[in-house]
Hints:
Number of helices: 4
Radius of gyration: 20 Å
Strand order of the largest sheet: 4-5-6-7
Helix content: 10-25%
Distance between the termini: 38 Å
Amino acid sequence: MKVAAEMSSDKVVSECVRNKKLSGSSRWRLFQVTDDGDSERILHSSEKVLNVYMGFAENDYLCLKENYILRRMTEIGQCLTRAGVLTMKDCRGGQKRQSKTWKKHYCTFRDGWIIINKDAKQSLKVHIQSTSSRRGRTKMGL
């Protein structure tokens, strides 16, 4: 496969999935394998593949495989409980109903649920369907 200088890891994965007719494009990630296969790291979706390749040691290589790290993190996350203050904005209900300000709420994450304590008497329990992070903010599919 030819890789252009500006191709990101996500773009390479998309091309490979399409060319090899693999199912579920979001399941696949590009890994850098090092130390004769003893360790590996997942490439960030926006990393330029050729830049990474130029820094390879002699026995390093790239490998496309199922994103087992995400699966393991999800499994571990389902059994952990975390609590703390979370800054959030209500984005439900379209442009007119969206909150215009960010507010701090005490939240608990447990078993795939987030419990948002709006005040001492009121809380909201919401199932987390998916999460994604970008530039220091996390978006949750609730």
